[in-house]
Amino acid sequence: MIELDRLAQIRIFADLPQDRLAWLSDRVSEFSIAAGDVVLREGDMATSLTILLDGELVATQSAGGEHDVERYVRPEAFGTPCVMASIPYPVTLTATRDCRLARLPEAAFRELFVSCGSFSQAVARVMSDWLTALETAALNRSRLAALGKLAAGLAHEMNNPASALTSGLAYVRRELDALEASALALGRHAVSKEMLDRLGALVARGAAETAGPVCQSERESRLADWLAARGVSQPWRVAPALAARGVAPDDLAPLADELSPAQLDAAIGWIARVLDLRCVVDDAAQGAQRIFDIVAAMKSYSFMDQGPQQEIDLHDGIDNTLMVMTHETQRGIAITRAYDRSLPRIQAYGSELNQVWTSIVENAIEAMDGQGTLAIRTRRDGDDAVVEIADNGPGIPPDALEHVFEPFYTSKYALHAHGPSLGLGLHIAYRIVVNRHGGTIGARSDANGTVFRVTLPLAGRRAEAHENGRLAGPVL
Ligand SMILES: Nc1ncnc2c1ncn2[C@@H]1O[C@H](COP(=O)(O)OP(=O)(O)OP(=O)(O)O)[C@@H](O)[C@H]1O
Ligand SMILES: [Mg+2]
Predict the structure, then answer these.
(1) pLDDT at 313 over 60
(2) If you measure from the C-alpha of residue 390 to the centroid of ligand 2, how many angstroms do you get, rounded to a whole number?
(3) Residue 145 — pLDDT band, cuts 50, 70, 90?
(4) Contacts 24+ apart (CB under 8 A), 166-172
(5) Whose CA is nearest to atom 29 of ligand 1?
(6) pTM to 2 decimals?
(7) Which UniProt keywords are given for this protein, alphabetically ordered (predicted)?
(8) How many folded domains does the chain comprise?
(9) 3-class DSSP state of 471
(10) Is the C-beta atom of 364 inside 6 A of ligand 1?
(11) How close is the Cα of 91 to the center of ligand 2, in Å?
(12) 20 to 30 A from 42, CA-CA: which of 10, 180, 357, 452?
């Protein structure tokens, strides 16, 4: 017979009166297993409660590669939610030392559940903790997946400007030597001070001008022919840099009249190098600016520099969100904005609202399969700010529409590269809008597309807003 005080150490039995503990002890069957043995296996259906009396068990899970979930050394009962809800074990339990265990058959478990109030309360507490743990794990997984996706998109966005910057700087380093040689050549051929000033002026004018791509190759070849006719070395090499900055034969003709062929060669070489380098440096600066812009948008998207609640302009939040999602929208989504700029700033959790826009926009992009129109409208409606995000995707069927804000409701069962959809995007959005800001969120949809409408009180969170509001959202 199992010691009653041992059973009383187990959480779900802790409040049982002595006679119930004795009843229980009569119905459990004790058994032993050796280190390394599996006690119960992930995916098997539960037909009894498994009780650890002495020894050590480790729980492992196969999702995401076999990994340890938890280790148990104190008396503990396993399988309460599985027996209650008739669902398979979520983990495998293996003995890491020799163990003394016991088994309570399902029938006895259910009998105790219906006849003993303190036991049913304890089971209810276990179930509630289990659901909370499950939801927390799913939320964390969903946040991580969203973060991973965002980071991958941003990395991709930064890749082009970053590599332009790196290769531009490498080019500049190489060409600086050539520039020095060109400058020395000017001195060697005794180009006068007055002529150097004129060359400088030509470069300054060229630097301020961009000729644009139209007819560039025609201008290049005309200039290259002109330079070749005057004996300038490597005309095909210098002509592109000069033509790109609007330098034409007419600008160079007065120089050619006054300089010897060797001086002209040195002068053209120098001008072309300076203009070329300026061009490359301008491109690199543009790349750096683009990286700076992305980082700035990312910082304000996540409100990295600020406290959790701030006075925000809703439009900035929406625009920052669209900016960090450029990677997903740029392939085929046209974005139209109809913003009511007279909307006052509102007191809100800025980064959380950005998560709301992200979830809605992400769903819209997925629904349109990357091709379509995303229309964003803002306006004032009494004491509320209204944001509407519309897509012209296939729409949400009426019977699905009433479930979209429920946790784990999803129609996307196919595996994405970043993992399966959890059906949490709109549920989290609902909690942020309704419970955190006292606003409303709803959707209407037909075969022409879907509109999500978010309203937020202009005067800040309404008094009745609370964290544990109704979870399913209204349908407009
Ligand atoms: N704009 C839309 N067009 C069509 N269906 C939509 C749209 N927005 C949401 N849905 C439907 O609502 C469901 C729930 O959306 P939700 O964002 O909560 O979950 P999910 O996108 O499936 O998964 P997750 O966001 O967790 O990756 C979606 O699976 C989809 O069926
Ligand atoms: Mg989603």
Answers:
(1) yes
(2) 15
(3) confident
(4) 168/280, 168/281, 168/283, 168/284, 168/287, 169/284, 171/280, 172/277, 172/280, 172/281, 172/284
(5) 410
(6) 0.64
(7) Kinase, Phosphoprotein, Transferase
(8) 3
(9) coil
(10) yes
(11) 28
(12) 10
